[in-house]
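Methods: holo model generation. Sequences were used as deposited, without trimming of termini or removal of tags, and paired with ligand SMILES retrieved from the corresponding compound records. Each pair was processed once, and we did not select among multiple samples. The sequence and zinc ion SMILES for this entry were:
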Amino acid sequence: MASQTLDIFCGLCGAFLVGYQKKGSGQLIRLYLDHVTHPDSIARLKSVAKKSDLPPLACTACNNRVGLAMSREGGRWAYRMIKGSFKRKRGN
Ligand SMILES: [Zn+2]
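and the model returned the structure below.
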């Protein structure tokens, strides 16, 4: 499946949040941490030990909450993205 690079922005203030390598097209429902390309402060959360070590994904500028921690079988950590709280653009 083809993948695309997305830039995710805060839906309220427009601040850049994360760069993401998304498989396929369609809605961004789950944000897998091992597909976050930057910033490092978020990408490195892929190696947390437990779900309680995963803080909600929030805008660093205005604190708007855009994702909630979830876990999945296989040990891949992900955020469930909150619909309408973020904007996405195709990166390069
Ligand atoms: Zn914001």
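The two ends are 18 Å apart (CA to CA).
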